[in-house]
Amino acid sequence: MNLQRTIASWKQMTPLLRKELLEAWRDRRALVMAVSFALLFPAMMAGGTIFMAKKHSEEITRVALLGSEHAPLIEHQLQSPDMEVEPLDSGDPRTLLGGDYDLVLQVTEDFSQRYQAFRAPRLYLYVNSTDTGSGRAQRDLQERLGALQQMVITQRLTARGVAPQVLAPWQLETRDISTPSSRGALILATVPGLLILTLFVASLATSVDTSAGERERLSLETLLLQPLPPWQVITAKTLAVASIGWLGALMAIAALVALMPIMPLAEFGIQQATTAGGIIAMGLVLLPLALLIAVLQILLALRSQSFKDAQTQLSIFQIAPLVLLMVIDAAQIKLADSWQLLPLIGQQQWIKGLLVGDWVSPVWMLAGSGVTLLLVAVSVMLGARALGRESLLSAA
């Protein structure tokens, strides 16, 4: 009996749903906004990755070496494909750093005498700390000078019959155990937040128009006079708004996957691990969230005083969740599995895992999606009660 009543209710809502979908999909402004943002961030991410890889591959440290005639071996030992050492007869370090050089290394005139006398001659390294690339160049040069210094120490000890191991009680070797998936998570960490932001941006215009916009045009009052339960009105509007938002998210996923082959991820040690099943799963886990975002946007717009007020409130509303996700990523907080039950956080964790090929628990995905759908149902009921108040129509 209850099933038949439910089917009858949905059949009764079909004309209203058709009307809401037609109005939503005929709004060119909303469609342009959804499509533009959905294609914009994958293109920007691909361009940024290509630029970073190109800059990384072309990043050569240029070192001006003053007084190279006093220490010719230093120039030979420092030369490498990613470090260009140019000996100069003279020059002012400040002027050289202001030109084409990243670092200036000066060898003192008494270097040879002090070196042969084991008196530790000095080397002067000039850097410009205001230059963003000087820190990397300085660390690179210091590592090379440190390796050269260790080689000289070893040779001196060996020449005097002293085993170098006597002065080195242990040897420390750093081994990176990170996997391509974990390295990929660092670069692709922003993708889940941007996909979620796409849901907000793509559905914003439609949600404002179907709520505050209809109230100002007085068409909402006409709709409420029809013999339809308020929950059907909210549900139809939610489905129409969510369809636009979900379309934007699906287009963003498709664009991102299509651009991945041209992104130089291999240069960062990342393997493309996104599978067809992972792509489908990403789209499915975003569907309940699209419904929740749509109904919350509609409720917030209905509570606003005007159409412009609704646009302002929803613009602020879409930034807050993104900031929350960015803070969690930046702080590198280790979340327990139970956090996947929370909307936004659960979808962020699942999409991040699916992007880099990590295993994502279907149980937690289903449980978290169920919680999101439950919140959608609660929000629909709250919206239905709001539609029953006369103050709603006089909010403008």
Automatic annotation (TrEMBL):
Annotated organism of origin? Microbulbifer celer
Statement: the UniProt record of this protein carries the keyword ATP-binding? no
Q: Enumerate the transmembrane spans.
A: 185-208, 239-259, 279-302, 314-333, 363-384
What are the record keywords, sorted?
Answer: Membrane, Transmembrane, Transmembrane helix
Protein name in UniProt: ABC transporter permease
Q: How does it sit in the membrane?
A: Multi-pass membrane protein
Which branch of life, at top level? Bacteria
* Species lineage: Bacteria, Pseudomonadati, Pseudomonadota, Gammaproteobacteria, Cellvibrionales
Q: Where is this chain's protein located in or outside the cell? A: Membrane
Q: Could you tell me which InterPro entries the record lists for this protein?
A: ABC2_TM
Give the ABC-2 type transporter transmembrane domain ranges: 37-377
Question: What Pfam families does the record point to?
Answer: ABC2_membrane_3
